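Justification of computing resources. Each target in the renewal requires a structure prediction run like the one illustrated here; the chain below, 483 residues long, is used simply to show the kind of job we budget for.
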Amino acid sequence: MSVFATPSKPRANTTAQLPPSLTSLGPITVSRLQGLYSDFAQKKQSNPTSYNANVEWWRKALEAHVLSGASKSRLVLAANRQLIDAMRVEGVGKPAGLGEVVTALVASHTLIPHSLFLSSVQTIYPSSSWIPSPTTVVTYVVGKPLWWAMEQLSIVGEDSLLGSLTSRASSSQSWYGDYVLLPAVEQTATTIFEMEENDSASDGLYNVAGFRKRFKDALGEPNALSEPDTEIMLKFMQRDRGVLVADLKQDVVKFTDSALPPAERAINAVDKGVVELRTAIQSLQDQISGLQTRMNECTSKAKDALRLNQKTVASTYLRTRKHLEEVLNRRLGSLTTLEGTMISVEGARGDVEIMKSYNLSTSTLRSILSHPSLQREEVEKTMEALAEANVDAREISETVTVNVDTAVGADTIDDGLVEDELAALIREAEAESKASKEESKVAKEEERDTAKAEEIQRQLESAGAVPDGVLRQPERERVAAGP
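Resulting structure tokens:
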């Protein structure tokens, strides 16, 4: 019975329950998953579009499986029987075409055999400047007709005897092995480089353990960068990106600029010394932390012994604590010395970089000053020419001004007439101003009279009619005067 068994009557329109490592791919129907889990190798010729779509889905699925942490490495796909079992889906079964998928992804350079990735000296990327050798050309010219003849006899080709053997091999265990997932490696390398670039306090020097500790979260999960993954990243970033140099024998990793000459990029004695000094400081710090922990344990145990009235046991713990304290003091002294040395070394390295900048600035300035146009004679000649040009410009400007005045008849105007006209305009303006003031004054007086009359009218209205028997002032005067 085949291990790739599929139920006979699955419900095609229902949503399939994907393995936990593939849940990030989103929902998918059982019918679609059945097509993906079938042996679709024959579609490569009969239906290339469907074949490529299936391979692309599996590429995403395998990437999701690796990056999910389902295996020990988040950069290496372990293609084996365990992978097939992990891909099993209830109601669909196990993938029958996984060997074809791995073969296709290796051909597209998405997967690279792990051993080949680590052992290759040259870059894993195909060279864009490859030129066929004369031997290759001769082989192609001579062998092409022979290959065509073998295709006609069905000896080679997709539908040939060899092709069928290869197809059957893809469904066997021949594709088993460990494969580096190149897209994941590329993304992780970019993340590590950005983390290093954004760390202004870093000098770009690590040992391997320090490199792993510094970039342990580069895969998107805490402490996800394993030792095998660290080896892959160091190999890729040195060989294929050129952003660091790693010497595993000396245990030194150095970030560097790929544009620098090889001699400057190489790990030197100073780099090795700095890493060793930093490693020693870290080791002392770990020892001090361990000693302090042991001292606290001895103190706690001594207190427990005293509570149980075990004075001898308590004294033993206190003696041990005293010995540990002596060792701790020595370690603290050594740490102080090493840290002081480290500060001096870092300061000296900084001074070296500053002097390099000074030298570069000096050479740049001298290169600029050596330009022929900045020689003393050339400068004086240029300034004299500039002065002469300014004189000529002033003369031309004056000539143009005189000619313009002549053209518009500026010299024929009688200044006396201009002054008389100006005086007339001034008198006219003064008369207008005076008339305006008079009009304003009259208007204000009229406003005051009007306001006064209105006020008297309001007072009369508020006083009301004159009561009977009360004579107005004029009537009283007439009565008093008589007939």
